[in-house]
């Protein structure tokens, strides 16, 4: 086979010739007249810096347009508040005063009174136990002052002194009535005139127990103010235990086993307002139609109650009369009671939400708490209608409550007849006497909704105590209890809400926070701190008032 070969150097010469041809073609593309023959000078440098400066000048404006606005929040103060509330429950300082009258202490000294005070404290510690709940006087956050009335002179203990001391022999001018109930009311007012001003100027409130040794049966009564008394043949050691139980179980705990009601214990709205809505329901107006003079209830009976609860909530009242409002549950005729009965098992189905249009308030706006109080007038076909208790007995009030909703009372018209043909179809008005009974039932239901008992007796470990009622619906020591619990509940809610908000905002750096939000956070923080400060000196009303809707810091 023939081999084809190339002469040495032939390939290199050809490539050099091709490169030279390409360079000549590129050079021919530039115009010598327009081509720059010198390096860029100052003019281009100034132009470059001008563009760069314009960009830097407009950069803040650009950043401002895309900025996420965040009002500054006091995160550290919020964390300190929430941590303090969670770790240290608020314990109110309490002042107690025990007064012994008629005991053989002619040769006693102040040290004797101090020993009695320490004995009372020891008994109180047994009743308190490990209870450190918010709103109580747990631990050692209380003082006990003792006064011995020895007729010739008054012996005052050095421990826990109070501003206004007991006047020696002040009970000599009071004559007890043979009618014990009248005597209790009169003695309660008399003690208020004697003890009512204790430490009031210092913002604190003193709870007193007067023990009168006399040749009678023992009678222990808790008044409607801030004092109680034990009168009769009582040994000193037994009196010490009774005094301690009244201080802890009645004045501090309100007659309940636990110190506070956990959770949402009071029906108060987020805005600190309560709307009491009273409703008169005529089940079947074809049988009868009843109306009421509610203005009389509002002006005479409700006004003192609203005024008494003012430190706790801002209360408004509404009323209405509705027709064609049958209940949802069934009732049955009972020959023994000669009435139609419904049981406690039927109570959840009694309220007919489809027919009972009870929400009348526009002012509430969703934040206020509305409590419904219903007077149900049954139709002829189920009249009289009675509530049967689980033990088979008939309810004395013929009503029931639904927690955080309100209460219902069944009112049977006088002369309830089973024969519908003999019914008078004219309009009627509930008599003032029946209205007073209805109001008494509603007051008991309102007290239950606030977590208070309506019983007139408290049965304790050391004996039975009579509890006097107030025409305001709530005694002074009960209002103190509600103020303490209201403050605790709001502080817990405030600490939890502010703490959650603080963690949320810090976890979302691009979250918008307007000035109004920041203002409300600072306002809430200040109110919570002021409430804690007032509570630390025993100013219950002021601490509770920090969360009142009319409060202005």
Key phrases:
553 residues; alpha/beta; eight-stranded mixed beta sheet; five-stranded mixed beta sheet; 11 helices; 36% helix; flat; disordered N terminus; PtdIno-glycan_biosynth_class_S; GPI-anchor biosynthesis; endoplasmic reticulum; glycoprotein
Which helices and strands appear, and what pairs or packs with what?
Elements: H1 10-27, H2 42-65, H3 75-87, E1 94-101, H4 110-128, E2 142-149, E3 154-156, H5 180-195, E4 206-213, E5 219-222, E6 227-232, H6 236-252, E7 273-282, E8 289-291, H7 294-308, E9 314-323, E10 332-334, E11 339-343, E12 369-377, E13 385-388, E14 399-402, E15 406-410, E16 427-429, H8 432-449, E17 457-459, E18 464-467, H9 476-507, H10 515-536, H11 540-545
Parallel strand pairs: 1-2, 1-4, 4-6, 5-18, 7-9, 7-12, 8-16, 11-13, 12-15
Antiparallel strand pairs: 2-3, 5-6, 10-11, 14-15, 17-18
Helix pairs in contact: 3-9, 4-6, 9-10
Please explain how this structure is put together:
The protein has helices spanning 10-27, 42-65, 75-87, 110-128, 180-195, 236-252, 294-308, 432-449, 476-507, 515-536, 540-545; strands at residues 94-101, 142-149, 154-156, 206-213, 219-222, 227-232, 273-282, 289-291, 314-323, 332-334, 339-343, 369-377, 385-388, 399-402, 406-410, 427-429, 457-459, 464-467. α4 crosses α6 (236-252) and α9 (476-507) packs antiparallel against α10. The radius of gyration is 40 Å and the shape is flat. The strands form 4 sheets. It has an 8-stranded mixed β-sheet with strand order 3-2-1-4-6-5-18-17, sandwiched between helices. A 5-stranded mixed β-sheet has the order 9-7-12-15-14, with helices on one face. It has a 3-stranded mixed β-sheet with strand order 10-11-13, with no helix packed on it. Helices cover 36% and strands 18% of the residues. Belongs to the PIGS family. This is GPI transamidase component PIG-S. Pathway: Glycolipid biosynthesis; glycosylphosphatidylinositol-anchor biosynthesis. The chain crosses the membrane at residues 45-63.
């Amino acid at each position: 086979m023939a081999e084809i070969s190339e002469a040495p150097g032939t390939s290199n010469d050809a490539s050099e010739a091709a490169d030279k041809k390409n360079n000549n073609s590129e050079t021919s593309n530039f115009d010598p007249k327009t081509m720059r023959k010198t390096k860029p000078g100052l003019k281009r440098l100034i132009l470059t810096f001008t563009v760069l400066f314009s960009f830097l000048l407009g950069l803040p404006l650009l950043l401002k347009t895309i900025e996420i606005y965040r009002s500054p929040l006091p995160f550290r103060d919020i964390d300190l508040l929430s941590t303090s509330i969670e770790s240290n429950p608020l314990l109110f300082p309490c002042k107690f005063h025990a007064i012994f009258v008629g005991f053989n202490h002619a040769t006693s000294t102040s040290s004797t009174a101090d020993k009695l005070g320490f004995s009372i404290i020891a008994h109180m510690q047994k009743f308190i136990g490990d209870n450190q709940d918010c709103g109580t006087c747990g631990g050692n956050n209380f003082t006990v002052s003792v006064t011995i009335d020895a007729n010739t002179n008054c012996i005052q203990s050095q421990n826990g002194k109070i501003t206004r001391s007991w006047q020696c022999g002040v009970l000599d001018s009071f004559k007890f009535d043979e009618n014990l109930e009248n005597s209790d009311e009169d003695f309660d007012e008399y003690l208020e005139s004697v003890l009512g001003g204790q430490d009031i100027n210092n913002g604190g409130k003193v709870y007193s127990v007067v023990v009168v040794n006399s040749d009678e049966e023992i009678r222990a009564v808790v008044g409607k103010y801030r004092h109680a008394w034990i009168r009769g043949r009582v040994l000193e050691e037994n009196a010490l235990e009774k005094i301690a139980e009244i201080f802890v179980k009645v004045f501090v705990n309100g007659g309940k086993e636990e110190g506070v009601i956990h959770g949402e214990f009071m029906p108060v709205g987020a805005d600190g307002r309560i709307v009491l809505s009273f409703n008169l329901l005529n089940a079947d107006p074809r049988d009868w139609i009843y109306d009421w003079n509610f203005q009389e209830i509002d002006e005479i009976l409700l006004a003192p109650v609203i005024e008494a609860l003012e430190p706790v909530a801002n209360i408004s009242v509404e009323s209405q009369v509705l027709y064609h409002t049958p209940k949802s549950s069934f009732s049955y005729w009972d020959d023994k009671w000669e009435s139609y009965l419904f049981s406690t098992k039927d109570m959840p189905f009694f309220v007919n939400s489809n027919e009972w249009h009870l929400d009348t308030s526009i002012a509430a706006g969703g934040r206020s708490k509305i409590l419904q109080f219903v007077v149900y007038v049954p139709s002829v076909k189920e009249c009289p209608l009675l509530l049967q208790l689980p033990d088979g007995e008939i309810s004395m009030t013929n009503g029931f409550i639904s927690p955080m909703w309100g209460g219902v009372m069944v009112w049977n018209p006088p002369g309830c007849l089973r024969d519908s043909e003999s019914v008078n179809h004219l309009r009627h008005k509930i008599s003032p006497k029946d209205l007073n009974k209805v109001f008494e039932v509603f007051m008991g239901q309102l007290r239950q909704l606030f977590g208070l008992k309506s019983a007139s007796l408290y049965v304790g470990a050391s004996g039975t105590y009579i509890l006097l009622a107030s025409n305001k619906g709530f005694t002074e020591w009960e209002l103190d209890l509600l103020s303490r619990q209201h403050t605790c509940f709001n502080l817990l809610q405030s600490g939890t809400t502010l703490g959650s908000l603080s963690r949320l905002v810090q976890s979302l750096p691009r979250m918008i926070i307007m000035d109004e939000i920041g203002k409300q956070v600072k306002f809430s923080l200040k109110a919570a701190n002021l409430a804690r400060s007032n509570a630390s000196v025993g100013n219950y009303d002021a601490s509770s008032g920090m969360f009142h809707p009319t409060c202005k810091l």
